[in-house]
Amino acid sequence: MLFFVPTRPRRRRTLAPLNAEEQRRHKLRNMAQSALLLGGMALLVAVCGWILFGPIGLLGVAVVAVAILLFGSRLSAQMVLRMYKAQPLSPRHMPEVFRVIEHLADRAGLERVPQLYYVPSAMMNAFAVGRREDAAIGVTDGLLRALNLRELTGVLAHEMSHIRNNDVRLMGIADLAARLTRMMSLIGAGLLLLSLPMWLQGGSPVSFVLILLLIFAPQLTTLLQLALSRAREFDADLDAAGLTGDPAGLSSALAKLERQQRGHWEQILMPGRKLPEASLLRSHPPTKDRIARLNALYERGQEQPTTLSALGFVDPVPELIAPMARVTARPRGRLIGYWY
Questions:
Q1: Catalytic residues
Q2: 154, 115, 151, 158: which is closest to 133 by C-alpha?
Q3: What DSSP designation does 281 have?
Q4: Does residue 117 contact residue 86 with C-beta atoms inside 8 Å?
Q5: pTM of the predicted model as reported, rounded to 2 decimal places
Q6: What mean pLDDT do residues 280-302 have?
Q7: 309 — phi, psi (to 5°)?
Q8: How far apart are alpha carbons 263 and 269 in whole angstroms?
Q9: CB 172 within 8 A of CB 71
């Protein structure tokens, strides 16, 4: 439980208001990137369908996509949470955190406050699942033990932004495009094997250029999917700063998460540095870029109230205490990867 004793409000340090022009510029850029990436994935799926089945293939791919989307939309968020052995939290566990969630949901215009779940994992992570009507936010034990209330507010606002922007469904559509291209890629590989004897005899009716496009389509779709994920993360950061009025809270949480993700040997042998990772293969933007964008939202001027100040919290911000026993078990291999 959080330790918080109401006191008479004290004067907080002056916080610069958010730069409205910078917010608008980042928002337009993120929306344009998302639209272009989704369009590129749809075009790639359509081309693969046309290569395999001609004009009728476009209609077939569209029908399959709609059917899968309708079926997938019925999948409950509870199924995902059960895979992580998540446990629902109630206001008696963390009353101040629930006050924050209710305030953020109201500011975000959500009809229903997302349910908060505790995930027994020592990793620092948070994620949103479900639709706006049945959304849930999962937070890990490691995250609750590492962050204070101000930082957790920024993280919760980030996940709330994903829910408001329907990013969970958007990434589901991107995943559908990836699955369709992988399926058609297998068909393309089969065509290549069947056409090889005919090609050796000098009479193959199938274009090898088109077959190669089918084979490499999944890789192209994956790159577009990762780029879309990075664009949506930037957008969620921006909206989170607008919800809390405190970009520095999220920046501090991101910095802690970056330090935790570095291995012990990496911290010893490469202090202050991180092993390079190809930017095209990232699902999230580099942390330094995210923090730079958040810092760019500040503007010198009058004081702006934040979520915590609006709820009556005063400095120093209380530390969080996880409502469950500390996770000490080692991660095990599961269908969803290594998890606790």
A1: 159
A2: 115
A3: G
A4: yes
A5: 0.78
A6: 77
A7: -70, -35
A8: 10
A9: no
**Token pair listed for 201:** 């005899």
**Bigger pLDDT: 340 vs 57:** 57
Torsion, Cα of 29, 32, 37, 39 (10° steps): 180
Tell how strand 136-140 and strand 332-334 pair up: unpaired
In the numeric block, which tokens belong to residue 77? 């968020």
How far apart CA 26 and CA 293 sit, in angstroms, is 8
- pLDDT band at residue 267, thresholds of 50, 70 and 90? very low
Task: Please calculate the CA angle 150-155-160 and round it to the nearest 5 degrees.
Answer: 120
Query: Which two three-digit tokens encode residue 224?
Result: 């577009």
Report d(CA 103, CA 113) in Å as an integer. Answer: 9
pLDDT of residue 182 exceeding 90: no
On the question of pLDDT at 67 being above 80, the answer is no
From residue 266, give the alpha-carbon distance in Å to each of 146, 257, 291, 328.
20, 15, 22, 22
Number of residues that make up the chain: 340
Using the structure block, give the residue that is written with the tokens 């505790």.
118
